[in-house]
Structure formats: C-alpha cells, structure tokens
Amino acid sequence: MSNYFLRLDQESWLLASYVDQKFKGLSSRRCIVAGMINGTNERIQVKNFRLIQGGSPCFTFPTIEYDKNQGILHPGGAIIFFGWSAVPSLLQPGNVILHIETNIFVSVLSDSISQSTSTQVLPTWHVDFLEKSYDSNEWWAKYWILIRKT
Known about the structure:
By secondary structure, the protein is mostly beta strands. The chain has a single domain (4-149), classed as Mutm (Fpg) Protein, Chain: A, domain 2. It is 13% helix and 46% strand. The chain is built from one helix and eleven strands. The strands form two sheets. Strands 4-5-2-7-8-9 form a six-stranded antiparallel beta sheet, with no helix packed on it. Strands 3-6-1-11-10 form a five-stranded mixed beta sheet, with helices on one face. A hairpin with a 5-residue loop joins strand 10 and strand 11. It is globular, with a radius of gyration of 15 Å.
C-alpha cells in the first residue's frame, strides 16, 4: 500500500486531536503519541510499555504484524503507543512520560520539549527519530521511531 505510513501518521494525529477535543477547559490534559516502525528483517520483542506519569493506561494500536500474545513486532510492522495525563493542578503539573522497553532499545519519552527524553540502544542497532513534534503550549507530543540494523 503506497500510503501505508501516511495513514499511520494520520491516525496518530487523530489521537492527539481527540484528547485536545475531549478534554478542554478545566479538564484539559496533556497527551503523548509515539509510533514505532520495525524497519528490520528481524522480529522485535516489545517487553514493556507504560506511562511513568499520566492519568490513563498506555494504549496500543498495532498493525497486523504485531503478535499481541508474544509481544512480537514482525518486520515492516508498526505500533502506536498513546496516553494522556491527569488534570494539572497546583500540586502536580499533569505531565505524561512514556516508557518503552524492547529487546533492542529502552526509551523514555516526554510530553514536553522542556523535559528530557532518553534512548539507550544495543550495539549494531539504530533507533532513528523520524519525528519529534511538540505543541508550542506543551499539551501534546508526537514521536515516530524507526528501528534499523547496521
């Protein structure tokens, strides 16, 4: 399908705009959308994903190349991770921080450009960020990660 990755990107934008439309005013919440693409000829095991900070579970939207029972993302497959924060208050800022652990890399992604993100990758592998987009008001962040072998 020639527009495969375009359609995936459109879906990730829909998720970010959904939170923006659903949670407005005094119920405003931050969100994070992170897509991961297996650009290798090998299987990638998704060991763990969770929100370190947030007010929702970490939802996943995989393509058919993902085996949910074993956590395996087959070559050419993609998965979108999505979550949102609790309502900001005087006691907590309502940030969203996403943790993704695979057999190739571990990454911590933030909803804000002002907070640090980190990625640790095993030797002989590359994890490239195709996109790091942030809302200028720091209400959402969107990432696309491509995994390649050297």
